[in-house]
Amino acid sequence: xxxxxxxxxxxxxxxxxxxxxxxxxxxxxxxxxxxxxxxxxxxxxxxxxxxxxxxxxxxxxxxxxxxxxxxxxxxxxxxxxxxxxxxxxxxxxxxxxxxxxxxxxxxxxxxxxxxxxxxxxxxxxxxxxxxxxxxxxxxxxxxxxxxxxxxxxxxxxxxxxxxxxxxxxxxxxxxxxxxxxxxxxxxxxxxxxxxxxxxxxxxxxxxxxxxxxxxxxxxxxxxxxxxxxxxxxxxxxxxxxxxxxxxxxxxxxxxxxxxxxxxxxxxxxxxxxxxxxxxxxxxxxxxxxxxxxxxxxxxxxxxxxxxxxxxxxxxxxxxxxxxxxxxxxxxxxxxxxxxxxxxxxxxxxxxxxxxxxxxxxxxxxxxxxxxxxxxxxxxxxxxxxxxxxxxxxxxxxxxxxxxxxxxxxxxxxxxxxxxxxxxxxxxxxxxxxxxxxxxxxx
Length: 442
Known about the structure:
Number of domains: 1
Helix content: 25-40%
Shape: globular
Largest sheet: 7 strands, mixed
CATH class: Alpha Beta
Strand content: 5-15%
CATH architecture: 3-Layer(aba) Sandwich
Radius of gyration: 22 Å
Structural class: alpha/beta
Number of helices: 10
């Protein structure tokens, strides 16, 4: 095969559209000054997902190692990824124990910083944004921050509910803006300011894609076709969701209303909303449009309902008789089922990442996918230890398929884990939050 010389980063281009490419064997496009890897080696990515209100605490556990690892019922949907799972037990945030309310326990989820009360807004820069400050110069989107539930601006028991609505913070006083709408998240990855309003992203770059196909290997042509097909599928799903009146919010069509005002919040099919956001995030990581992504599946103190999840306690119905927050104050079968629903979304994300080949590794192998919540059990607001798991191998730098137990040990700050994850991406602050050393076992 002929040798071709490509720019450090190669794009498909059209009018108003710039589409980054996935890893291809024919190109060496991902080397940059941030990482020490060669230009043909895929970079390490960080992906953080969050679900509020904790879990069914008696069923959040793991023991053993590798493919023989045993999982509690909450984690059962992740059984296929036991050899790529790191279960971390016993870590906590000291500052989050002050206040004992959802906001005070969530506002520093990714920073461990002290947070202000009295309705004031002050937390700490989250570790994903600290990484974005290093890696953002190398990608189109410094960090992709997505959500499936709108933020809450009210105050609850002397703490701003913005703390419950944001896990990513660009500065101590600035929660990173959330993108709630799939169409806008998609546009951010691919469209430029000059893009025609209704122009398909894929249609805009097809001519450039056809030219590129002539210069790449047959296996890369197949990979490119699969990638373009996935972009088309997401465009179609977004368009169809809009036609159904989902995800994009309510817009009046009359000067004088002739119907009852819709309920507050974002009209949505919960499962489809989450899957769309996951697929968009995968595209962002796959194309190296971003290396840092967070997805808040719901708020702490969440008002989501789950009509799509069959109820065990009320057979024949969905779990829409109670909002997520109130449901968390039980350890019933429906609470367990909703926990599993969230883990099913995480398993879907892991599976998508693991099917994308990047040389000898998969995208999941090159990613650190951390899932967390700000409390173990919602009924007691228990954050003596926090539920944390990490999927992926950080490009071979992280040994997974293990259970690490820090319960009862000294220096069990969750921020030590954050230092360890940053270390895998060659960012080495001397301290972060309340931690001055990383977890050597990670």
